[in-house]
Amino acid sequence: MSDSTPLPKIGAPATRALATSGITSLDELRDQDLDALIDLHGVGPKAIRILKEALADEAGKPAS
Predict the structure, then answer these.
(1) Are 23 and 15 in contact (CB under 8 A)?
(2) What residues contact residue 7 under an 8 Å CB cut-off, 6+ apart?
(3) If both were cysteines, with which of 8, 11, 23, 35 could 18 make a disulfide (CB 3.0 to 4.6 Å apart)?
(4) How far is residue 22's CA from residue 53's CA, in Å, rounded to a whole number?
(5) pLDDT tens, residue by residue, 22-63
(6) Which residues make Cβ contacts (< 8 Å) with residue 56, sequence separation at least 6?
(7) How far is Cα 8 from Cα 51, in angstroms, rounded to an integer?
């Protein structure tokens, strides 16, 4: 079992679109071009903003 950080609440359509693309955690999101994810059906500018904020917040956390 991994200690991956779940995706933030971005809405069901965006979450499904990311899951369909194999992205189900922030860890899997780190290697992605977030601006390219806007092309996925269901992912809009608000979801991209929330994801960027979550990644920035996660990067600022001390390692546990």
Answers:
(1) no
(2) 15, 18, 23, 24, 25, 26, 29, 51, 54
(3) 23
(4) 20
(5) 999 999 999 899 999 999 999 999 999 999 999 999 888 655
(6) none
(7) 7
Structure tokens at 56: 């920035």
E strands, the chain, in order: none
Q: What is the dihedral of CA 28, 60, 45, 20, to 10 degrees?
A: 10
pTM, two decimal places: 0.86
Tokens 């290697």 belong to residue: 31
Q: Where are the domains of the chain?
A: 12-59
